[in-house]
UniProtKB/TrEMBL annotation:
InterPro entries: HTH_MarR-typ (IPR000835), MarR/SlyA-like (IPR039422), WH-like_DNA-bd_sf (IPR036388), WH_DNA-bd_sf (IPR036390). SMART domains: HTH_MARR (SM00347). SUPFAM superfamilies: Winged helix' DNA-binding domain. GO terms for molecular function: DNA-binding transcription factor activity. This is HTH marR-type domain-containing protein. Residues 11-147 form the HTH marR-type domain. GO terms for biological process: response to stress.
Length: 163
């Protein structure tokens, strides 16, 4: 692969803008989340995903797939959260290899307390600064790019399974 397909000026500007946007939002929203609730962004993502699931439970692989995380990353995050009592991991009857992750009462309480403050932070650092058209453009771009990774040959996989 010797041919370089350099970014055009417009593409480079878009890429650099995305990188800067991601960096500032990760920093500001992550900082707010930690100080407001004591949760990390990863904690919040897991809790929010489980709270939206039927009965607050998902198989480990479903949880990871829903968040576009590898099974390994999901398992490590769940283990950390389990030690803190936010989630519980149980086996799936009839399938000894499958794990079901469940939201505990402490986890449900944590997400209920954190969500309004998190939404306020997202509004403060992003939503309130953009027009409706800009919000629609971000949403559309996200849908187009992420759809590629939800299924098919480019979907998110464990590094261990690719070797």
């Amino acid at each position: 692969m010797t041919d370089n397909n350099w970014l055009s000026e417009r593409e480079g500007k878009a890429w650099r803008g995305f990188l800067a946007l991601r960096a500032v939002l990760d920093l500001q929203i992550g900082r707010d989340l930690a100080s407001d609730s004591g949760l990390s962004e990863a904690d919040y993502h897991v809790l929010a995903t489980l709270s939206a699931a039927e009965q607050g439970r998902l198989r480990l692989t479903e949880l990871g797939n829903g968040m576009l995380w590898s099974t390994s990353r999901t398992a490590h995050q769940v283990s950390r959260m389990q030690r803190r009592g936010l989630v519980r991991k149980t086996g799936l009857p009839g399938n000894s290899r499958a794990a079901v992750i469940m939201l505990t009462e402490a986890g449900a309480s944590a997400i209920r307390a954190a969500a309004p403050l998190h939404v306020a932070s997202v509004r403060s650092h992003l939503i309130d600064h953009l027009t409706v058209d800009q919000l629609d453009a971000i949403a559309e771009a996200g849908e187009v790019v992420v759809a590629r990774y939800r299924s098919g040959p480019d979907r998110v996989r464990d590094r261990e399974s690719e070797g």
